[in-house]
Each structure stands twice: as C-alpha cells, then as structure tokens.
Sequence to fold (118 residues):
Amino acid sequence: MVDEPANTSEIKVRLVRETVEMYAIGLVDALHAERIIARLVGQYSDWLVNPGPDPQPEEAEASEPTEEQTTASHTFERECDWCGQTYRASRKDSRYCSKVCGNRAYRALRKQRENPDA
Fold:
C-alpha cells in the first residue's frame, strides 16, 4: 500500500522527481521537463536548474538600477504639437504633452474637416 502525501508540496516534490527520472531515461525531452518543473515549482524553477548562493544584500542593491535610471533611459524629450511646451514622453510617437492638448488638437482637426471654408 502506498502512503498518502501530507500536503501539496510533497506531491510537487514527487512529481518533480518523477519528471527528472523520465528525463533521465529519455521519456521526456529537456524542454518539456523544464516546462513541467516550472509549472510545478513556479518562480523558484530557475533555482532548481541553476542553484547558486544567495546574493548578499549589498550586491542585490547595487545590481538593481534606480528608478531615475530606468525612467531616464525610456523617455524622450519632446515638444507638444498643440501648445509648444517641452515634455518627457514615454513613447516615441507621442505628439502632445497631455490628454487635454490631444483632445484640443483632435477637436480642431475635426472642426476643420467639417468646415473646410472656415
């Protein structure tokens, strides 16, 4: 008679072991084995594949870029097509500094299309 596992973590451990055994005898290829284990273990699946020492707190803080660095590299200095104000755009194709300017430009364009004489 097989003893019943006490909780889901024991079930996951057994399934990971069985997946590794299936990979060892060639029933599952590496890609599928890795996917199965990733599903079972979740965010810690990389640790199972590549166990390593935990980073020291100083190393972890030094490796993470600051908020200023991440936003500065992804923003662009632009000039609003409606009001002419300089602003920092998060997209290359943005044309207006705010939703208000975008709406005003759209309304002006719509008005111009309705009354081309004016």
User: Anything to note?
Assistant: The beta strands are 76-79, 86-89.
